[in-house]
Amino acid sequence: RSNVRIVVDSRESTHAAFSATHLCSRPRMSIYETKFKQASADEMGALEESLPDKILDIDVKLGTAISLSEAETRFTQKLDPTKPTPNETVAGSLSTARAEAAACVLNLRKIERFIQLHVPTVEDGGNFGVAVQLEILKGVVERRTKVKELFDGVAAYHKDRAALWKDVAPKTSTDHVEATTKETTADDDKTTTTKATTKTTDEKKRVATDALPDALAAIAALDVSWYFHAFYVLEVVRDAYIVCGDAVAKNRAKLERPKGDSGSNSMTMF
Asked: How far is CA 126 from CA 120, 196, 253, in A?
């Protein structure tokens, strides 16, 4: 009887050990799969809902552009070599484009984050869906990088324009002017004393010279070039939204569940 009891206890012990090992081997849901993944899915859903309005809004802004020949005529007429002034039309267009580019970079990062948090555990086989994820992710990263480069480049406009104005704007010269005053005094014995005082002052003068026609033309040409650049940035941003949004919409199931609902995919590339 004691032997039988020992065998039974041994079996129960083995079963308990197996159950404990099985439970420990189950993957635990990390904070990345719960809090962060859900937050990313929520912001992705909000972005998808807002994309059509964003695209239409940029289209409206693109529709305000005037032809480059008309822009050149307007910008040239406004140039006064005696009064350096900013080109508010170009500066405003670039400010709008820069703001849209900044928003686009952050929105594309949301798509990247959504895809990356849905990449499953690395396994052998059944990776077709993962390949789709990585291919779309690559395209989003490339467009985001391009938009970021355009965003960074906008800052060069004011620096380049200021450099051109130096050749056109009136120059300031400083003249040193000396003035001598004499003061004569007489004491009690009627002796006179004369004291001379010299004072030096600096006088600044603005000297306007005839501006070279090519110097003014260079400023106008720069304004036209950057005016075109502003609308080019808007087009790149709009197209990034269209292409990336379309890729996500067409492959949403693969992006969320790259291995299917069952955790595996019968279509495999490996």
From this structure: 11, 102, 15
